């Protein structure tokens, strides 16, 4: 058994520390910000399993959150709330298993487009089901309070971070890395690529299903166009790029950076914050192409070099 | 020493800056709205109404607080990016961080529903505006109220009345798949059947439809007396363009949301004449408040108010102002005042029964010679319903 490396302990401790500190402020607003932050961390960590480790870039991860949310409203009142959220996660995982075999046959840009299309397809299927059922946006009254949702989401963020760390440590992680570098070569030397990819895809769908269910509980309202909003998929990819590393640090740093930045900006400059945010993002991609994690590594190595001389 | 003085001066400045907002003693009123995203085109109608109101209140010397004092108002606005989740976070911030004195409503039904639990948790009363759904009746009364008279089941009954008045025996029903359109359809179809009005075409289409040719060719072939377009602004525009092009000749043509927005009539000139739409307000009645609002809005923004959204937003601030004049800023007294009071507004008297507007009847507007008139209900009409005669 390897000892945990800092790149494994740091993100875990960071998430745990934030989760412990935010409630101290005693304000719903900070709990709300924390809820959003943990939601994004869980989503980006999940995405990293299939897109970071295996290199299959998904541009449709919102589909799993949407399914989770939809299952929650469908089971609302029939099962306890927590069971609805867990069922949402399982349904998302099952969906990934079902579509995974055909979808994971294509690679590169084709996979990107296919996942995006799949999410849009699922959105319109749900819209049509809802219309056929005579539903027009579903209202959920009496959901859990913000504290409960906060802790549930913090647990999801921790679980996502742990999942990425664990996956990298076991054979699955090595296999996925081999798939990413050269799938044909991996298969030749005996890596069960199909099984690994499918397993990773399903694994990366579970938590988003749970997160999607919590999102619906937070607003108390389900509407397919919002639950399957492609902007969620885009934001996941943006955060991953900003985080900039394929270990568990990237998603935490990326989500933290974007959530804190946009939070500070919209509160201080409500009229122009989108412009500032856009400019900062462009600057970031130009001057720190390896993301926040890359920036930290660079700072540390130059610091180390100076200390050595 | 110099440094010490510097630090002292800086901290004094900082303290002054921190204390300044408290001394100004403005009544701080917060809201979030979709400045960006999917609903951004709809938001200005509401923002304009809020800004006009704040300007007028301050010109009057401020908001009357329970008859004791008047204080100027300051609006605090955030962008929710059309995302109800953001609206939840923003209203939590407005209440717990910004500690605003009053709240105004955001744009849209999902946003109203999303923040209802925040209002409930903090016992903070807010008057809603641009929201409509039969589901609003399930909300717990006490901290949120809805001004609208355009709830889908009442709309269906009123629509059948209007169709019978117009002598319409057969219709085509075209429905946008967004929630409000679907909700209207759900209640309209059985009402049509019960009234013996035949549905010749029944077509649903996606929210982002780009071309209605296929649907409208079918409508033209079926020759219905009426077309009921349960549409949103974008597809309302598509409809007029295509229906004019292929010459839909139905004498009754209805579009749910869109024609009440100012630019719509400017865009189509005479071609939009005869189109019926949802709404229960027009400046042509004898309500003095209405005329004053219409004139002030037109003067300030160089355009007409949106007959739906600007009006609902304005009604919500009229009610808020009158309730605050009675109860002051105390939340419990304010809740009591809103729940039990009767208010003078540009849509007439308004009183709430639970969360709903208990007074205003469901109505329809029609474009006649470039002006919007109330044509239903009959006792409130500013002009009788006229058949649509061609596309000019």
Can you describe this structure?
The complex is a heterodimer of chains A (309) and B (392). By secondary structure, chain A is mainly α. Chain A is built from 14 helices and two strands; from the N terminus they run αααααβααααβααααα. A two-stranded antiparallel sheet of chain A has the order 1-2. In chain A, helix 3 packs antiparallel against helix 4 (81-103). Chain B folds into two domains: 23-150 and 286-357, Rossmann fold; 152-278 and 363-380, Response regulator (Rossmann fold). The longest helix of chain B has 23 residues, at 2-24. Chain B is globular and about 65 Å long. Chain B starts with a helix and ends in a 16-residue tail after the last strand. The chains are: A mainly alpha (309), B alpha/beta (392). Chains A and B meet through helix 2, helix 5 and helix 9 of A and strand 4, helix 3, helix 4 and helix 6 of B.
What would the keywords be for this entry?
heterodimer; A: about 300 residues; mainly alpha; ABC transporter involved in vitamin B12 uptake, BtuC; two-stranded antiparallel sheet; 14 helices; globular; B: about 400 residues; alpha/beta; Rossmann fold; 2 domains; 7-stranded mixed β-sheet; 3-stranded parallel β-sheet; 12 helices; about 20% strand; disordered N terminus
Produce the secondary structure layout.
The complex is a heterodimer of chains A (309) and B (392).
Chain A: H1 6-21, H2 28-53, H3 62-75, H4 81-103, H5 108-132, E1 138-139, H6 146-169, H7 171-181, H8 183-188, H9 193-219, E2 221-222, H10 224-227, H11 230-243, H12 249-268, H13 273-287, H14 291-308
Antiparallel strand pairs in A: 1-2
Helix pairs in contact in A: 1-6, 2-6, 2-9, 2-11, 2-12, 3-4, 3-5, 3-9, 4-9, 6-7, 6-9, 7-9, 11-12, 12-13
Chain B: H1 2-24, E1 27-33, H2 43-59, E2 63-65, E3 69-71, E4 73-79, H3 84-96, E5 102-103, H4 109-122, E6 126-127, E7 144-145, H5 152-165, E8 170-176, H6 179-194, E9 198-205, H7 213-222, E10 226-230, H8 233-246, E11 252-255, H9 262-268, E12 275-278, H10 288-301, H11 309-327, H12 331-340, E13 342-345, E14 348-353, E15 356-357, E16 364-368, E17 371-376
Parallel strand pairs in B: 1-4, 1-5, 6-7, 8-9, 8-10, 10-11, 11-12
Antiparallel strand pairs in B: 2-3, 12-16, 13-14, 14-15, 16-17
């Amino acid at each position: 058994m390897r000892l945990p490396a800092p790149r494994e302990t740091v993100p875990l401790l960071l998430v745990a520390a934030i989760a412990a500190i935010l409630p101290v402020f005693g304000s719903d607003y900070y709990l709300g910000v924390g809820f959003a932050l943990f939601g994004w961390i869980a989503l980006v960590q999940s995405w990293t399993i299939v897109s970071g480790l295996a290199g299959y870039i998904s541009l449709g991860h919102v589909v799993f959150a949407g399914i989770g949310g939809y299952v929650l409203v469908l089971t609302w009142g029939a099962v306890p709330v927590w069971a609805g959220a867990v069922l949402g996660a399982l349904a998302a995982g099952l969906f990934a298993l079902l579509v995974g075999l055909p979808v994971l046959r294509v690679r590169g840009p084709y996979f990107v487009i296919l996942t995006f299309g799949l999410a849009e397809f699922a959105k319109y299927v749900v819209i049509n089901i809802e219309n056929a059922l005579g539903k027009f946006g579903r209202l959920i009254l009496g959901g859990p309070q913000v504290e409960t949702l906060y802790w549930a989401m913090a647990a999801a963020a921790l679980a996502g971070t742990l999942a990425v760390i664990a996956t990298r440590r076991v054979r699955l992680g090595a296999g996925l890395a081999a798939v990413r570098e050269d799938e044909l070569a991996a298969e030749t030397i005996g890596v069960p690529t199909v099984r690994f990819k499918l397993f990773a895809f399903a694994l990366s769908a579970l938590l988003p299903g749970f997160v999607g269910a919590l999102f619906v509980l937070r607003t108390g309202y389900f509407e397919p166009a919002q639950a399957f909003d492609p902007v969620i998929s885009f934001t996941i990819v943006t955060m991953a790029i900003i985080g900039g590393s394929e270990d568990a640090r990237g998603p935490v740093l990326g989500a933290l950076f974007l959530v804190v930045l946009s939070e500070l900006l919209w509160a201080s400059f409500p009229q122009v914050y989108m412009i500032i945010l856009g400019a900062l993002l462009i600057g970031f991609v130009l001057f720190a192409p390896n993301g926040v994690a890359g920036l930290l590594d660079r700072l540390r190595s130059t610091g180390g070099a100076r200390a050595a001389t | 020493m110099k440094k010490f003085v510097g630090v002292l001066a800086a901290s004094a400045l900082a303290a002054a800056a921190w204390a300044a907002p408290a001394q100004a003693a403005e009544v701080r009123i917060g809201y979030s709205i979709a400045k960006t995203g999917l609903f951004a085109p709809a938001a200005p109608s509401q923002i304009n109404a809020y800004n006009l109101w704040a300007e007028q209140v301050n010109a009057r010397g401020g908001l009357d607080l329970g008859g004791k004092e008047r204080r100027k108002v300051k609006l605090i606005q955030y962008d929710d990016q059309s995302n109800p989740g953001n609206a939840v976070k923003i209203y939590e911030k407005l209440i717990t961080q910004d500690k605003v004195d009053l709240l105004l409503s955001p744009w849209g039904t999902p946003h109203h529903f999303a923040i209802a639990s925040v209002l409930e948790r903090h016992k903070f009363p807010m008057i809603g505006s641009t929201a409509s759904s039969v589901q609003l009746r399930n909300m717990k009364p006490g901290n949120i109220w809805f001004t609208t008279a355009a709830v889908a089941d009442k709309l269906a009954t009123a629509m059948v009345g209007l169709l019978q008045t117009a002598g319409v025996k057969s219709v085509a029903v075209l429905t946008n798949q967004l929630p409000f359109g679907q909700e209207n359809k759900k209640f309209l179809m059985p009402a049509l059947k019960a009234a013996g009005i035949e549905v010749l075409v029944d077509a649903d289409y996606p929210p982002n439809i780009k071309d209605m040719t296929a649907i409208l060719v079918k409508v033209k072939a079926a020759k219905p007396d009426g077309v009921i377009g349960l549409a949103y602004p974008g597809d309302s525009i598509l409809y007029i363009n295509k229906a004019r092009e292929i010459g839909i000749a139905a004498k009754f043509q209805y579009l749910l949301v869109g024609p009440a927005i100012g630019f719509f009539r400017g865009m189509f000139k005479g071609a939009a004449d005869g189109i019926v739409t949802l709404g229960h307000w027009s400046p042509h009645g004898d309500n003095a408040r209405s005329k004053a609002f219409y004139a002030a809005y037109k003067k300030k923004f160089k355009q007409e108010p949106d007959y739906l959204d600007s009006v609902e937003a304005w009604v919500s601030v009229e009610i808020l102002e009158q309730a605050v004049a009675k109860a002051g800023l105390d939340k419990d007294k304010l809740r009591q005042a809103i729940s039990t009071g009767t208010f003078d507004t540009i849509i007439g008297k308004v009183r709430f029964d639970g969360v709903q507007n208990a007074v205003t009847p469901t109505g329809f507007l029609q474009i006649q010679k470039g002006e919007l008139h109330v044509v239903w209900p009959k006792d409130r009409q500013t002009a009788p319903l006229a058949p649509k005669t061609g596309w000019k």
